[in-house]
Write a structure and sequence with these properties.
Helix 1 runs antiparallel to helix 3, helix 8 packs across helix 11 and helix 11 packs antiparallel against helix 13. The longest helix is centred in the last third of the chain and has 15 residues. The radius of gyration is 21 Å and the shape is globular. With 466 residues, it is of the alpha+beta class. Bound molecules: flavin-adenine dinucleotide.
């Protein structure tokens, strides 16, 4: 078959090849480590076009990737010499404020989502960098500033409209297909192309939030402060901690994001007192809209080089806190970006959700710790990957969740059988069963992959190919 002609018939003027003047701009991924050169990029703009493109892709046999927001750290939203189904035109967000629901296109970004919902004083847990895609982030779990109160992003999905590997359209929810619904929450990139998510929204217009920066000399104390605060936090408070170089002078600092969506004035006063119990370098915590909260940590441009390495931990004991500070100082400075360590809590509604409600493996953990190496030139690739991995190695003995949060995995071979089995533990064989039913030929494989050809690999029996 002539694939180009078939795609042109479905998406006129929206098929991009290497000869197209916009090719380099369209193929660009967030992570500059992955300079993918697809043979064809096709941009459907509704669910029927997406369905027809999947059918052509299947028939052609071309390796295919689905691109949502293009932020995947392992470059999974694209591939060399194959077809990319780029969903960026499927970015609608339709809010029903009375029902408290939003229908969100599979290629929308969190900026699209937050602005549309925020207009009605509504919100839902989403990525803390608003350029990230709703699709990839939600299908892998979805950590954000509201997670203590509202759970992970995936906990708020009510139903999905998707195109399956055999080119059929499907609307699915917990009642119609409980196994697929379970699998879509945490390993969801594997089962189909989601054209629409229906999200439950929460009445959150303003928050007391922003960030507070502590000086480098107080970094170890700040890690302990953050840990103790989050271990005792009410659901309405979610903080994260970044060990980074801060401001124009690139001074080492511990920067804590703070998002309090409660209305208890007494707790708020206690929170202020706690946050100020360590000398402050910069205070940017104030009453603000949730939309403003979502952008207060700034933005990163597309095209920088990233290697992230994350692990979930049971706790953050003092010796681990000190090792993380030591690892931070071993990181590299590439002005104006630098190696950063991110510590996120797993708390509140995330931990309370029944384990059987989703395939998310790490709900019992307390913290997610990520070494985020960020730089701009290829000569430092090996050194930077080694630094990020060294952060994960320090955390590894404190956890038992394999790769932990799959959305932070930076390696192209993410999801190799042994690793996926360790990460999903008891849920792995169950996920494979859903994959074999929905996608037995592994059409959707540019992701943290569940390979249906792999023998059953219950955790502890890691003998399959990888
Ligand atoms: C700057 C930055 C900030 C981040 N912040 C957060 C954060 O606050 N919280 C958090 O949890 N994670 C965060 N992440 C991680 C993020 O969850 C992952 O990078 C995620 O893969 C991004 O999704 P995407 O749609 O942008 O990526 P893409 O690269 O487009 O896609 C990622 C994967 O999802 C699949 N996919 C995407 N959309 C669909 C769809 N509609 N249907 C089926 N499959 C789809 C793709 O095929 C691919 O396998 C961040 C990442 C970056 C780079």
């Amino acid at each position: 078959m002539n694939v180009r002609r078939a795609l042109d018939a479905i998406c006129p003027d929206r098929v991009v090849t290497p000869a197209h003047p916009a090719y380099d701009a369209v193929r660009l991924l967030f992570n500059g480590m992955y300079d993918r050169r697809p043979r064809l990029i096709c941009l459907p703009r509704d669910d029927r076009e997406a369905r027809d493109v999947v059918r052509v892709a299947r028939e052609s046999g071309l390796p295919t990737a689905v691109r949502g927001g293009g932020h995947n750290v392992a470059g999974a939203g694209s591939l060399d010499d194959g077809l990319v189904i780029d969903l960026r035109l499927l970015n609608h967000v339709v809010v029903d404020p009375r029902a408290g629901l939003a229908r969100v296109g599979g290629g929308a970004t969190w900026s699209d989502f937050d602005l549309a919902a925020g207009t009605h004083g509504l919100a839902c847990t989403g990525g803390t960098f608003d350029t990230t895609g709703v699709g990839g982030l939600t299908l892998g779990g979805g950590i954000g500033h509201l997670m203590g109160r509202c759970g992970l992003a995936c906990d708020n999905v009510v139903s999905y409209r998707m195109v399956t590997a055999d080119g059929e359209q499907l609307v699915t929810d917990r009642e119609s297909d409980p196994e697929l619904d379970w699998a879509l929450r945490g390993a969801g990139h594997n089962f189909g192309l989601v054209t629409d998510f229906d999200f439950r929204l929460h009445p959150i217009g303003t928050v007391y939030g922003g960030y507070v920066a502590y000086p480098g000399a107080a970094m170890s104390v700040a890690v302990r402060l953050f840990r103790d605060l989050m271990l005792a936090a009410p659901d309405e408070l979610t903080c994260t901690l970044l060990l980074e170089r801060y401001g124009p002078t690139q001074t080492p600092a511990a920067v804590m994001s703070v998002c309090y969506s409660g209305k208890d004035a007494g707790y708020r006063a206690t929170l202020d007192k706690t946050l100020r119990s360590v000398g402050v370098l910069d205070w940017q915590v104030t009453d603000r809209s949730y939309v403003s909260m979502q952008v207060c940590l700034g933005r990163l441009p597309f095209g920088l080089r990233h290697h992230w390495s994350a692990r979930c931990a049971d706790d953050l004991p003092d010796e681990l806190a000190d090792r993380l500070v030591e690892r931070f100082h071993a990181g590299r400075i590439t002005d104006p970006f630098n190696d950063t360590i991110l510590i996120e809590p797993i708390h509140g509604a995330v931990r309370r959700a029944a384990p059987e409600s989703s395939a998310v493996p790490f709900r019992e953990a307390r913290f997610n710790v990520t070494g985020m190496a960020i730089w701009s030139t290829a000569d430092a690739d090996a050194e930077q990957a080694a630094w990020a991995k060294s952060v994960a190695e320090v955390v590894e003995p404190h956890g038992r969740w394999g790769d932990g949060y799959i959305n932070y995995v930076a390696e192209a071979r993410a999801g190799a059988a042994g690793r996926a089995a360790r990460t999903f533990g008891a849920g792995y064989d169950r996920l494979l069963a859903v994959k074999r039913r929905l996608d037995p030929d592994n059409f959707f494989r540019s992701n943290y992959n569940l390979d249906p050809a792999t023998g059953n690999l219950a955790a502890g029996n890691l003998t399959g190919k990888s």
